[in-house]
Amino acid sequence: MLRQTKVRQLALQLLFLFDAHGAPDDVMAAQAAADGSDDSDTRRRAIEVARGAWENRQISDAWVERLAPHWPPRRQPGVDRNILRLAVWELTHTDTPAKVVIDEAIELAKSFSTEQSPAFVNGVLDAVLREKQKLQKGLGEEPEARSQEPE
């Protein structure tokens, strides 16, 4: 398994814990990360990613609710809600190619959620990406000319 994929899987698990408890907990995160990986860098990065997605969840949730009004975050399965939070955060806060982020989110949905979840996650994230690209063009920025190679 590629290291960044493992970081995403572990970050999703941490984000799900934060969501279930209503707040991040450093002790709980450290223990869950230790249970999830033997690699200290993977654990550290997963905690950072989960915290970033958690801290930006209101923005991500509002964006998703606007783009998928029939399935707002409060009606989504917890796993789907947190896959979307994680992916929206990564699309807007990292230089990871959008194709990689979306493909990895779909794989997380296939592994951890319902049969319908991969299509839902794909549709929502495609809409987020299109809107992000329109916003960048409106601001006069060039869309990311990034490699589409998976990490």
Range of strand content: under 5%
* Helix percent band: over 70%
Distance between the terminal alpha carbons, to the nearest Å? 11 Å
Helix/strand order, N-terminal first: HHHHHHH
Anisotropy-based shape: globular
Unreliable sequence segments: 145-151
* Number of β-strand runs: 0
Report the total helices.
7
Mean pLDDT: 91
Largest sheet: none
Structural class from helices and strands? mainly alpha
**Gyration radius, in Å:** 15 Å
SSE map:
Blueprint: H1 3-21, H2 26-36, H3 40-55, H4 57-67, H5 78-93, H6 98-112, H7 117-138
Structure write-up:
The protein has 151 residues and is an all-alpha fold. Helices cover 73% and strands 0% of the residues. The chain contains seven helices and no strands. The longest helix is centred in the last third of the chain and has 22 residues. The chain is globular. The C terminus is likely disordered.
